[in-house]
Amino acid sequence: MLLQCGIGDDGASPSARLSWLRAETLESLIELNELSLALLAEQAAQHGSAPVPLLREVRSLWPRLDAPGRRRAAGCPYLLLDAGFADAERWRGPAGHVGESAGQAGPAFFTVPGTVEVLRLALTWAWHLARTQLPAARLLLGTSAPCAALIGGCTLRQIQALAERRAEWLRPRWATRPQMWRGLLLAAGSGEPRQLEEAHMHGLTLLAAELRAAAEPQPRVSAPALRLSRSAG
Predict the structure, then answer these.
(1) How far apart are CA 95 and CA 82, in angstroms?
(2) Which residues constitute the domain of residue 93?
(3) Domain contains 97
(4) Is the pTM of the predicted complex or chain greater than 0.90?
């Protein structure tokens, strides 16, 4: 198992992985995922024939889901939005200036009016989990223990300020994997338990791979090799 919090390759079903979580934590996760999906659908509708493949998939599939189907889509064992929860550099900084060292996170994905409010809720929930339920934070946010500690080390005032200043941080998880989202929405629409579980497991596998890659030490360049590369340039 990659993480003791439940992300790994032990063969357990997503529902089994979540059995130890508090009921109120799961309900909050579903509620936040419902808001996330609604925000994504609003963004897709605003852009019409958007060139972004993910938005095209959501624009075509979201209207087909009824209320139970949308709740099934929101029932993933992880948060469907990301705000750099695995990016330690983003959460480091001088006192009162968390996030300054990360600079801009690139062009904002979300531009619709509800973006800041959803970001505020996501950051506040992540901060609360990191402070009170570290294993849950690691699983549901897809973050490492050191990074969760940095998130939990922020003050509430800092979290609120980040929501106001850093709307560009908020992005769909796996924004470059439209097929992942297509599989999830189709499975949610079908209501077929096995298909839905496979979609959830796919997401857990991706999270585990990302955390494994982030945990691997980066190769260090020796001083002679560095001098050689500079002279060659």
Answers:
(1) 24
(2) 18-211
(3) yes
(4) no
